[in-house]
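Q&A log
Question type: sequence-to-structure
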Amino acid sequence: MNQHLSPEPADLNLPELRARAVAAARGDLAFDLLITGGKIVDMVTGQIRDADIGIVGPLIASVHASRSRQDATETLDATNAFVSPGLIDMHMHIESSMVTPAAYAEAVLPRGVTTIVWDPHELGNVHGLDGVKWAVEAIGSLALRVIPLAPSCVPSAPGFELGGADFDASRIAEMLSWPEIGGIAEVMNMRGVIDGDPRMSEIVNAGLASGKPLFGHARGLGGADLNAFMAAGVSSDHELISGADFLDKLGAGLTIELRGSHDHLLAQFVEVINTLGHLPQTVTLCTDDVFPDELYFDGGLDDVVRRLVRYGLRPAWALRAATLNAAMRLQRPDLGLIAVGRRADIALFDSLRGFTARKVIVNGRVVASEGKATCSLAPRDATPLAHSVKLSPLSEEDLRVPATGGRVRIATIDRPRFTQWGEMDAEVEGGFVVPPAGTTMIAVVHRHGKADSRPRIGFLRDWGEWRGAFCTTVSHDSHNLTVFGSNIRDMMLAANAVIAAGGGMAVASNGLIDAILPLPLSGLMTEKPLHDTAHAFRVLRAAMEKIVDWKPPYLVFKACFGATLACNPGPHQTDRGIADVVAGRLLESPVIDSA
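Response status: OK
Response body:
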C-alpha cells in the first residue's frame, strides 16, 4: 500500500535523530521547539507539575525545570496551559460524521485529538476492498494519525443480509498484511465466534496469526458466551449496556473503550470507576459514531473527556484513559505520555474542565492553533465513492405487503435498540396488509446491485406515533436503503428523493419533502465542508422532531440508523427479511399466518 508513510514508531529510532536529541538534552544543541511555562498533567502519577519541554524533530528530548532553558529555534509560550499528550480515540467511524477524512481531521486536530483508530467498515460494506484501500490512501497525507483496522464483519450477519461486499478470511488476511492496518476491527458476529462458525473462526485466526490486536463488539454478552468470545481471541469491547456490565467486563479482563455516543450511560461508568477508587489501566475512550452537528458544535474525543469530568471523573483519570491507557492497548510506547524519548504529540488545554485546546502538536510540529488547523489537509479524490446507490425509483405498490384472505397474523419487531419478537392481527384489503394501528412500517431495499432490490417490509412497535417518513442510506452495517414511516405515500417520496440524490437522508410528510441531506459518496458522506453538513443535518433533525415524538434513551433519532444491525440479538429488518441471528430465523414476509 502507501510506501510514503512514515514508518512509525521506528522513525523515532533513527540514529541521527537520537544523536541530535541526546545533544539537545545535554545542552550542546538547541531544541527545534521549546514549550515553556506550562503545567504538565502526568499520566503516570496523576500529578500536575511545572516543567518545560524540549523537542527535536518528532521526539521529546528534554523535560526540565521551567524557564531553565531558552535555546530553541522556536519557542511556544504555554503559560497557564495544561500540557497533555494528544488524545487517542480508540474506536470510531469517520463515515458516521458524513464528511471526508480530511474534513474530519480538520475538525478534531484543533481540539487536541491527535490519533484515531478508524474502523472503515462502512466503506468496506459498500465498496469492498476498494473502499478500505481508499480509506488507507485518504489518510496518508493527514497530520492526524489514523490507525485503520481491517473490517471483520462484512456483512455483519452473513445469510441474514446482503451488502456491497463479502470479506472472508482471505480478504481479512490480505488487509492485515498491509503495514498501515493496525488490527481487526470490532468483531460483531458474536454468535458466529461463540458457536465456532467456520467463517468467523477463520477470520479470527487470521487476526491472531497477524500478531495484531482483535477489537470486539460484545453487546449483551456474559457468562459462558463472554468466555467463549474472549477465548477465541477477542480482547476489547465498547458495547456496554450498564454500569454493572462495565464492571463485569472489566473483571473479565477486556480492554474497555468507553464510548461517548451513549451519553445516558456515562454517569454510571463514572460511578463504577469512582467506587473502585482508581482508574483501571484497561479503560480507554472512544467516540464510535459522532454525527456531523455533534462533531461541529461539540467535538470528538475531547467532548467525551469533557463530559466524563462533568459527571464526576477526575480530570487526570479521564485524560489518562484517553492517552496512556490507549497507547498501551495499541502497543505504541511512543505515544500517550509527556516524557523524554516519547513522540511529541501534545495538546495545550486552557483548563481541565472545558478542555479547549490552545495549541496542538503532532510529531513535534504545531498543527492547530486557537481552534483552527494550521497544517495542510489535502482531501483525497473521492470519485471512486460516487454512484453507489444502484436503484430505480420505487412505487407505492413496492412498499405494500401482499397477503390473501381478509385477516392475517403478522410478526412485529418490538422496541428500539433492544428488540424482541411480537405478533398481532392485521386486516387485508385489496390483497395487501393494512398497517395496524400503533405500528411503524420499515422497508429495507438492497441498493448495491448484488441481489434483487425488492423491498423487504416489517412492522415496528413501540416506535412512537409517526406523522410522516424518513429514508436513509446510512443504515448499519450493510447500508441498504431503509425507510421508516406511517404511510406509504410519504415513504415513497422520501425514498425516491434519496435515490435521486445518490444517497443520503430525507424526511417527508403530508406529501412533501421537508428536509434532505444528499450524501453522494458511498451513500454515507459528502465533500461539502463540515460547517455546511452540520447545519444541513440539524435542519433534518428538526424535521424529524416534527414527525416523531422521541422518547430517550432508546427511542431517539440515532435508533433509526441501527434498526437494521442484524448482528445484534433480537429481530432486525434487513434487505432479506426479518432476521434474528440468535434464533437462526429469517422471515421474508412479516405475514406468518392467514386467518
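Response note: The first strand starts at residue 31 and ends at 36.
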